[in-house]
Structures are given as structure tokens and as C-alpha cells.
Amino acid sequence: MQTIAVTGGGGKLGQYVVRELVRQQYKVVSLDRTHAAGLPCRQIVVDTSDLGQVASAMQGADAVIHLAAVPSPTGFPVPDIFANNVMGSYNVLEAASLLGIRRVVMSSSTSCYGFAWAVKPFAPRYFPVDEAHPQLTQEGYGLSKTVGELIAEMYHRRNGMSVVSLRFSLIAAPEEYARLKRGAGKAEEFAKILWSYVDIRDAADACVASLRADVDGAVALNITGDDTLSEIETAELLRACYPEAADLRQPFEGRAPLFSNALAKETLGWRPRYRWADGLA
């Protein structure tokens, strides 16, 4: 039985990931700042800004899923967000390197492309947005995700570690769909994130699939749903909110998504199973 260390195991996504790992009969240890009630695994209180604590807690792990981070650019001062996310990623990867751990799965974000939280709003250069799209951040949160991916590439160059960075869009739990639906009829409501989301159960599946994927390198993958978080068809959304979009690299029929998750499907053997509208039926 493999032992998987999950940083942020007591968090929103972390709890789903821990439970899915346990269901698949992995041995799990959660590394977080506090204990989470009812989490079905061993828990160690760890501050990811302290390399010694991280390395000590990760001893005996065969792989790591790193989810501990500030999950959005709101609620904390930007310098704190940047420092927390970047140093946490560095320390987890450095500890993995010291301990000889060969596979790390990292939580990244589609915010790394820049348009979600841009100070000066801009449109993507083409649609759908795939992993080759330039990262053009204008703020600290998205930049922290870009830097995390660069750190992962450095560790692969240094010792051959395989790192899978998962660029999550808005992660939605089933109990949140009723609230999110209130904005789904307005074209502008989720425009800055390109109306993208991923069900939390699909996000957890992607984390677990990344442990087994045939990856040799540091790769980044869009983990997004197969539809938009909108009741309006995608072509109409584009006309309303991104009229300047000229480079459309596929037809957008119905509520087709504006982020491509094709590489994640190919690399991980994963695909989204849940849609927000089905959850309300």
C-alpha cells in the first residue's frame, strides 16, 4: 500500500481527496495547520512555511499531493498570499527532493493565465484556452501559481522528479450549485473566469489520477469542466463579453467550455463526470 502525504488535507478540496484516496485503499497522512474533525487518516499539524516541519511530516510518504495554499486573491494581503503560496510550494518540493520522493501533484490555477484577476482587463489571445496560452498575470495570486510551476520545472531538471501541476478553475461542491445558479443567467457574472468550473469530486479524481499517470517531467494541466457555468450558450457569451475575440480554434456549440481540458484527459485518463445543472435536477 502506498502512503500519500496530502498538504491541506483538512481544506475544502483536501477532504475530498483524502476520502477518495482512502476509498482506493491508499494510506494517507494529512499535513495542515489544524486538525479537521472526522478526517479518516492520520493528521499532522504543519506550517508549510517551515521546511523542517514539512520534511519531518513527509517522511515515509511515497508521493505528495500539495493542496495547502491561499485559494484566491481575496481575504489576505497580496504579499502574504504570494509568500505563503510560493514558499509552501518550494518547501514541499525541496522536502520531496531531500526524501527521494519521485512524484508530486501540485494545486495550480487557471488564474495563472492572467485574465481572471487582471488590474487592466484583457481577453485571452485565442479560444479555447489551452496550456500553451501565455501566462500574463498582473497580480500576486496568479503569479504565485506561475512561480510554483516554475519551481516544479526546476526540480525536474535537478533530479528528475515528476510533478503534475493541476490548473483548477473554480472548484464547486454540490451544495454550492444552487447559489452559483443565481448568477448563471447573467452573461457578465462569471466572464472573468470564462464561465469555467470543475466539480469538486472531479477535481479530487484528477488529483488521484495524477499519482498514477505516465508522466516524465513537470507538466501543467487544465482541470476544468466539460460545460460552462452559465445558462447562456457559449457563442452568445463570447459576443456579449469578448466581442474582440477573433481567434476561435473550434466551433462552440451549446454550452461548450472555453478552457480546453483535452491534455488532462489524454495525460491522466481522466474526464469530468459531473455538471452543475445536473446537480440541480
TrEMBL record:
Domain NAD-dependent epimerase/dehydratase positions: 4-217
Pfam families reported for this sequence: Epimerase
Domain of life per record: Bacteria
Protein's recorded name: NAD(P)-dependent oxidoreductase
Lineage: Bacteria, Bacillati, Bacillota, Bacilli, Bacillales
